[in-house]
Amino acid sequence: MGSQWSRDPTYTSAIGEGYRSRASYKLLDIQAKFEIIRPTDSVVDLGSAPGSWLQVLRNLTEGVIVGVDLSPIAPLQGVTTITGDFTNPLILAQVKRIIDPVSIVTCDASPKLSGKKSYDQARIIDLNEEALRFAKAILKQGGNFIVKTFQGELFNDFLADVRANFYSVRVYRTKATRKGSTETYIIAKNYIHARNEPGTD
């Protein structure tokens, strides 16, 4: 696996610039295109390990930043990390004790893939839905949401769910995404908090 990554110029460049993975360039590309993260935004990053998006976020905002992942994340100055499953209500409660409400929720997470297309697509969309549920529970009115997903038979249904909760929703394939990959990002701006009723999240 090491030789595979070493042949990837984007990975090599990322490591050379001090980032923990090539995924850093994906968030930098999204920010350059959409200017979604503002200098004072508070951000929760779901599926953070190894922490490359947290590194980018720390450079983009002076707000509070929290990263959540099942795997431990090596410490980053000015960032709070939580080891746990973001689908667990106790993790949501822990995040809320640190920052509530939140300006932006980002999620670059994806499950381990089996190679079975339909099964993997269902698992990916399920994870996406959990990230959206988390975002709806903690975002402030007008907040933003970035989530990685994959094109497939369930993609349009999930996209419709996002559009029902945000005024502006775009689909974007980053320049750092590998050729042949169905990976894409949903960039959602201006959360419609008023639509939520007490107890629905």
UniProtKB/TrEMBL annotation:
Q: Which GO terms describe its molecular function?
A: rRNA (uridine-2'-O-)-methyltransferase activity
Q: Pfam families from the entry?
A: FtsJ
**Chief location category:** cytoplasm
- What are the positions of the active site? K148
Which InterPro entries does its entry note? RNA_methyltr_RlmE (IPR050082), RNA_MeTrfase_FtsJ_dom (IPR002877), rRNA-MeTfrase_E (IPR015507), SAM-dependent_MTases_sf (IPR029063)
GO CC terms in record: cytoplasm
Where does the protein end up?
Answer: Cytoplasm
Q: Which family does it belong to?
A: Belongs to the class I-like SAM-binding methyltransferase superfamily. RNA methyltransferase RlmE family.
Mind telling me which PANTHER family this protein's record contains?
PRE-RRNA 2'-O-RIBOSE RNA METHYLTRANSFERASE FTSJ3, RIBOSOMAL RNA METHYLTRANSFERASE
Identification of the protein by name: Ribosomal RNA large subunit methyltransferase E
Q: Please spell out the taxonomic lineage of the organism that makes this protein.
A: Archaea, Methanobacteriati, Methanobacteriota, Stenosarchaea group, Methanomicrobia
